[in-house]
Amino acid sequence: MTAVVILGGGTAGWMTACLMARAWPGAAITLVESPAIGTIGVGEGSTPQLRGFFRTLGVDEAEWMPACDATYKAGISFHGWSREPGFASYFHPFASAIDLHTQPAFHAATLARRTGHAVAAHPDGFFLASRLAAAGRAPTPAATFPFEVGYGYHFDAGKLGEWLRGHAVARGVVHRPARVAGVAVDADGQVRHVILDDGETLAADLFVDASGFRGVIARQALNVRFRAFASNLFCDRAVAIPTPLTGAPAVQTRATALSCGWAWAIPLTSRIGNGYVYSSRFCSPEAAEAELRAHLGGTDAPARHLQMDVGRLETTWTGNCLAVGLSQGFIEPLEATALHLVQTTVEAFIAAWQDAGFTPAGRDAFNARIARRIEGIRDYIVAHYRMASRDDTDFWRANAASDELSDDLKALMTRWFTGGDVAAEIAARDLGGFYAPMSWEVLFAGYGTFPDPARLRPAPDPVDRAGIARLLDGCLANFADHATALARLGGETLALRAVAG
Ligand SMILES: Cc1cc2nc3c(=O)[nH]c(=O)nc-3n(C[C@H](O)[C@H](O)[C@H](O)COP(=O)(O)OP(=O)(O)OC[C@H]3O[C@@H](n4cnc5c(N)ncnc54)[C@H](O)[C@@H]3O)c2cc1C
To answer: Any residues with CB less than 8 A from the CB of 181 and at least 6 apart, and which?
Structure first.
């Protein structure tokens, strides 16, 4: 690759710049962004994959985390999604290697319960990440702990963008603050150049559209079709209100079901990011803001209202344009997968381009792979709403009644409800690369979707619960509490900020 123009300086644009500068050190990479338009400024949680991003760049946590007010994330705790007794909350853990010792027991417990036996099958007692979150320990073990532990991060999205910009610019990426006012497309559908508002034109071999929901190149100039997900994902707006951090930051994102969607709480070292993702079909912005304020205990901090285009482009790579980030598509923030998709997309594009260049075969295979990945994540998110046993509002009743489910999702739900092997179905359908069997079983079990408790038959417990508790408690000794782990990265100031009210 000799010349790349990236349009957009949000997290997606700068992540792309960092990865491409590393993959193609000789390429001339220019990133254009309009300071007047600005970035979306939300997106504060990651999956464990972001660790791989920083590893690829050769960057230690101590270099970026303190600069971005970042904290560790062991998983997501879900509250109020189920009305089944005993299932008011559950924790979706990020996987770690020690789960190999506890996952089979969890599977056995859920199978017994699904087939009508009176066996406790709530997921929370089975996984290291849940234990770490409950104990407020950072998921970064002592060097002597012989198991890989998966974790993600929480961070200030604006600060992460700035940090990535510094990293990319130091590696030769040219930063060009300007608005793109036009895109020149030739008869073959190839982008020739973009036209800046001062009249300058920028030509390149590859154009990356990271312009956010505006979709300046892919959607507007190339007319790439957008497939909306509104048929089974109803949330299309959000309102965000930060609150002060009180005490040490939690090691988890909290996702609480509200009347027309759900609220996130993301602990940073400087504040807690909060927001309410809701459906405009069922709730006005004013009502959503009022409900979020009440949920937060009556704060009068300023609110930001956001619209979300939930769906995906038909093709992520079109001609010589690659769409990444919100311009490529957005599923919604539950499970925090957006930056995960940016990373996957850019890494897969670099590999595909290096294998086959700008060939239709390489492009088609890449597009099919990315589309499948997005649809795979979509299924998992749809399941959160479809399986929720709330029927207290029109929003939740509409979700419960939704029959717009993919064949994959229907097959997994059928397996679960008929006492079948969910893992085998995931393997047969090759879905394990999106969400592993553990995640699916935790979701189904966490919602308490089991046969009627009144009809359960007594059965011997197939699980050595005391043994699992001993194992997980023993592991805890290898993990420092969160504030201490953060202080090790950032020194005294960070430790003080982590406990400030
Ligand atoms: C409510 C909400 C919560 C979210 N939570 C999460 C989360 O927890 N985890 C996660 O991974 N993701 C989350 N996301 C998604 C995340 O915010 C985005 O994926 C991420 O910030 C990347 O955005 P972006 O760079 O694609 O777009 P943006 O941040 O919108 O950046 C677009 C860029 O394009 C530039 N631009 C646009 N038009 C032009 C033009 N004509 N000329 C020049 N420049 C232009 C803008 O100036 C800007 O620099 C969330 C999103 C929403 C809406």
So the answer is: 195, 196, 197
Q: Which of 246, 250, 247, 295 is nearest to 275 (CA)?
A: 295
Mean predicted confidence (pLDDT) in 411-422: 95
Task: Name the band, by pLDDT with cuts 50, 70 and 90, for residue 495.
Answer: very low
* The two three-digit tokens of residue 132, written as one number: 């770490």
The catalytic residue among 73, 92, 312, 340 is 73
What are the pocket residues of ligand 1 if the criterion is a CB atom closer than 6 Å to any ligand atom?
7-13, 32-34, 37-40, 42-46, 157, 179-180, 210-212, 214, 216, 238, 275, 306, 308, 325-327, 333, 336, 338-339
Above 80 in pLDDT, residue 181? yes
Question: What string of DSSP letters covers 409-474?
Answer: HHHHHHHHHTT--HHHHHHHTT-TTTS-HHHHHHHHHHTT--S-GGGPBP----S-HHHHHHHHHH
398's CB contacts (< 8 A; 6+ apart) are 234, 282
Pairing of strands 28-33, 152-154: unpaired
Residue 122 CA to chain centroid, in angstroms? 24
Structural domains of the chain in order of their starting residue, each with its CATH number: 3-71+155-231+310-371 (3.50.50.60), 108-143+375-476 (no CATH)
Predicted pLDDT of residue 453: 87
C-alpha span between 92 and 97 (Å, rounded): 16
Q: How far apart are alpha carbons 352 and 311 in whole angstroms?
A: 24
- Neighbour count for residue 455 (Cβ, 10 Å): 8
Residue 494: pLDDT over 50? no
- Cα–Cα distances in angstroms (integers) from residue 45 to residues 85, 273, 278, 296, in the given order: 30, 10, 18, 19
Tell me the CA–centroid distance for residue 127 and ligand 1, in Å: 33
Mean pLDDT (whole number) for 413-441: 93
